[in-house]
Write a structure and sequence with these properties.
Layout lengths: L1 H13 L6 E5 L3 H15 L5 H4 E5 L5 H8 L9 E6 L6 H12 L5 E7 L7 H9 L1 E4 L5 H14 L6 H11 L3 H14 L8 H7 L8 H9 L3 H13 L4 H23 L4 H8 L3 H13 L2 H20 L4 H10 L2
Parallel strand pairs: 1-4, 1-5, 2-3, 3-4
Length: 330
């Protein structure tokens, strides 16, 4: 039910229907992160976020602080957003305090509770379920995971038949964050928008890698030449195709340019996430990179990547040398 719950949540928030209490329950971090990003973007204007958005951790005995703030009126905003993570770690007195708040919540606050798991037989869970809007964030398994991979690929502009989606899942595993990254990598590499064989998938996706092309693009975004060269050589030595690495580098700087334009236009983080196709779990670091690099430098790097692509495909120059030169030109 995770994706259906997320779609329902997005529809409600788009319509301006906010509940005072949400429970994001389940072990899948990808779904919890997506739900949190939706709630943050839709419930509070970016200009008022610093005054009205707070996160607390139930493992650190912060429930009392979270509830006290939830009862406080927002500043320069129609509502406040308070997140209390890991409520499964709350002690009995804190659970009672939370249930007491849930029976009469502050209507000008959106309180979001998260937990990887709760015993559904307990009074605590049953009462929360009655009083909160439940968004299930359960992990996907088996064919549900394969179908999710197919849908995510389609959203990235990649046609991935079920048998190939299943092979990607077998190679990468059930972590949706990692799976999304690998699918996006495949989409960036596939010029035709489709992949044809299991052999092609196996060549492009390697399971249990210590370093990934995404770490390289992060190093490039931070303009860390030393780390970029080290990661580049690890990827090449590990067998990653040079053209695949180049495609992902180009994708990253294209996203940077798109994000910088939207930041300049004052668009929200949620809109940037959607248009630049950067997921919530990676958005904060990505935006930091986008803000730290000048537009001229990002465009210049994108131009050099385009030129390198032509060289690789036509001149017969050493692909490793071309990529190393790019990393050093930051």
């Amino acid at each position: 039910m995770s994706e259906q719950d997320l779609l329902r949540l997005e529809k409600d928030l788009e319509s301006g229907r906010f509940r005072p209490l949400y429970l994001l329950l389940g072990a899948e971090d990808y779904f919890r992160t997506r739900a949190l990003v939706l709630l943050r973007e839709k419930s509070i204007d970016a200009a008022a976020l610093a005054f009205n958005y707070s996160v607390f951790d139930g493992r650190d005995r912060q429930a009392g602080e979270a509830l006290a703030l939830a009862r406080t009126f927002p500043m320069m905003s129609p509502r406040r957003l308070v997140v209390l993570r890991d409520i499964d770690a709350l002690q009995p007195p804190e659970r009672e305090e939370l249930l007491c708040y849930a029976s009469d919540p502050q209507t000008k606050c959106v309180l979001v509770l998260t937990a990887a798991g709760l015993d559904r037989r307990t009074v605590f869970f049953r009462e929360l379920k009655e009083r909160a809007s439940l968004v299930t964030c359960d992990s996907l398994k088996g064919q549900a995971l394969v179908r999710w991979a197919e849908r995510h690929a389609c959203g990235c502009g990649l046609k991935l038949p079920a048998r190939l989606a299943e092979r990607v899942v077998n190679l990468v595993g059930s972590d949706l964050n990692l799976l999304a990254n690998e699918i996006e990598k495949l989409a960036a590499y596939s010029a035709s928008g489709s992949l044809q064989s299991v052999e092609e998938i196996e060549r492009l996706v390697r399971s249990n890698r210590q370093h990934s092309v995404f770490e390289l693009t992060a190093a490039l975004g931070k303009r860390d030449r030393r780390a970029a060269l080290r990661l580049l050589n690890m990827l090449l030595d590990g067998g990653d195709p040079p053209l695949l690495i180049l495609a992902m580098m180009a994708r990253h700087f294209r996203q940077i340019i798109i994000a910088k334009e939207m930041i300049s236009d004052g668009l929200s983080e949620g809109e940037i996430s959607r248009r630049a196709q950067v997921h919530g779990f990676a958005l904060a670091e990505f935006l930091q990179q986008a803000r730290s690099i000048e537009m001229e430098a990002a465009c210049g790097m994108y131009y050099r990547l385009s030129r390198a692509d032509r060289w690789m495909k036509s001149l017969g120059v050493s692909e490793r040398l071309i990529l190393e030169d790019l990393a050093c030109s930051l």
